[in-house]
Amino acid sequence: MAENIFEIEKIVRKNISNLKAYSSARDEYQGTRGIFLDANENSFGSLIHNEYNFNRYPDPHQKLLKEKIADIEQINVENIFLGNGSDEAIDLLFRAFAEPNMDKVLYCPPTYGMYEVSANINAVEIIEVPLTADFELDIEKILPHLTNPNLKLIFLCSPNNPTSNTLNVKNIETILKTFKGIVVIDEAYQDFSKQISWVKNLSNYPNLVVLKTFSKAWGMANLRLGMALADSKIIDIYNKIKPPYNVNGETQRLMLEGFENKSRKYRAVDDIIAEREKLIDRLKNFSFIKHIYPSETNFILVKVENANLLYDYLISKQIIIRNRHTTLLCENCVRITIGTNMENMMLLKALESF
Fold first, then answer.
1. How many domains are contained in the chain?
2. With contact defined as beta carbons under 8 Å apart, do 238 and 223 qualify?
3. Residue 34 lies in a domain
4. What is the average per-residue pLDDT within 15-23?
5. Pair 95, 214 in one domain
6. CA separation (Å) from 108 to 33, 93, 105, 192?
7. Cα separation of 217 and 220, whole Å?
8. Does residue 39 lie within any of the structural domains?
9. Is 129 found in the same domain as 241?
10. Are 208 and 235 in contact (CB under 8 A)?
11. CB 3.0–4.6 Å: which of 67, 135, 198, 280 could bond 163 by disulfide?
């Protein structure tokens, strides 16, 4: 077990430590039965008439949902924060631990763009340590930054977007054992990977936050539900500063309904991985494709002769991929999400005429 060098009291912002959290009506009374005259809701109902009480506020703690997730992830409810997409979980980390115009965040491009956006919104200086040419962490360049007292957050995406690979486990362990701030591992695409989730290491590293989403493997992108899994002290801070009703009732209800059909999620993951391997095999036949990067995600990164030209051509065929040509280390690369078998066949047919 790693030595516990992490003291959350030393890195949380003082105004957050002193913050008195907002107490909603549903915090003060958590029962489900009664005449509710406490929250200034519209007691006469909503515009939509059905069995669901849209005029009532949702459970601010998402208790039933967290119980299901705790069972799936094999962790305690106290280790779960649910947010309006993973983006809320990212933003709240900046609000809690990074002092504007003083503290710093480190991330390794090319990677998910919201780390940079959230840093800029919260006026937190960015330390960029680009990935190596083979899309691995440049650990020798990262290590000198770990003793910077103003560095509070490190974001690592594994499997990474847009490079589609997992990051070296030993390098991540080195960071977790050395850094006295918070290490965030974004596992949005972990379901499509052979790598074991870092959730298994939460008890070993009190400075570890694992981000997960229901937008990818679970197929619930429209519901906007993400989660952060971490030590209970970090989750307590999340719950202290989050908006009171940050996950709406319909999202909670529909996600609980989705959990009743978990087997469909596992079948979808298997189908996506199978289609991924078939698509990679077929793409190798096109001369204008120069390299297909190994993938442990539900997309592939492909280097082509001219990314702009290919992108515009496919748009004309109403096939939309992502042009990553201007992204660091991704010159003339496009990112292709794995579609259904029919969608992939239509893509391949269009490429035959390119």
1. 2
2. no
3. no
4. 87
5. yes
6. 50, 18, 10, 21
7. 8
8. no
9. yes
10. no
11. 135
Q: Which residues pair with 211 in a beta bridge?
A: 186, 228
Shared-domain flag, residues 327 and 300: yes
Give the tens place of pLDDT for each residue, 227-261. Answer: 999 999 999 999 999 999 999 999 999 999 999 98
Polymer length of the chain: 354
Q: Say yes or no: 131 and 185 in one domain.
A: yes
Residues 229 and 344 in one domain: no
Three-state DSSP class for 251? helix
Token pair 């109902």 is at which residue?
45
Q: Identify the band that residue 37 occupies on the pLDDT scale cut at 50, 70 and 90.
A: confident
> Which contacts qualify for 235-238: CB closer than 8 Å, 24 or more apart?
235/78, 235/79, 235/80, 235/81, 237/8, 237/12, 237/16, 237/96, 238/81, 238/83, 238/89, 238/92, 238/96
DSSP one-letter code for 218: T
Packed helices 262-283 and 341-352: angle between N→C axes, nearest 10 degrees: 20
Pair 229, 345 in one domain: no
The pair of structure tokens assigned to 216 is 């990818």
List 302's β-bridge partners, or say none. Answer: 292, 334
Confidence of residue 296 (pLDDT cuts 50, 70, 90): very high
Tokens of 197: 């989730």
Tell me which residue has tokens 């959290």: 21
Which SS3 state, helix, strand or coil, does residue 303 take?
Answer: strand
pLDDT of residue 319: 96
Residue 143: DSSP 8-state: G
Backbone φ, ψ for residue 273 (5° rounding): -65, -40
CB 259 within 8 A of CB 231: no
Quote the CA–CA distance of 304 and 298 in Å, as a whole number: 19
Q: Which helix (H) or strand (E) holds 281?
A: helix 262-283
**pLDDT tens string 97-124:** 999 999 999 999 999 999 999 999 999 9
Instruction: Report the b/e string of 97-123 with b at 16+ CB within 10 A.
Output: bbbeeebbbbbbbbbbebbbebbeebe
